[in-house]
Amino acid sequence: MTYVDHFGPHRALGVKAIHKIRWRKPTDRGATIRERASTCSCRATVYSLLTAGGLMFIRRFVDEDGEVEVRDSPWVRPVEAEEVWESLLKGHAV
Ligand SMILES: [Zn+2]
Known about the structure:
Blueprint: E1 33-38, E2 45-52, E3 55-64, E4 67-72, H1 78-89
Antiparallel strand pairs: 1-2, 2-3, 3-4
The structure holds zinc ion.
């Protein structure tokens, strides 16, 4: 039997998403990026809430058979990013 340690929240499943995040390929803006929060890595898709240069964004990691695709949400003001993050965790944003 395999035991998995669960760290961080899990995104709610089975909820109809009402907000579509405009995921884009990450661009190097030269800003120092720090992680504020991250969803549990037991899922194939992991989301991190990141802060950089006074703005915040969400980074999505999708593991497809070992190939990890990385995408970033738009960089926005922290208050706006935290709203999107909450919405994402509740399953309202995708
Ligand atoms: Zn987990």
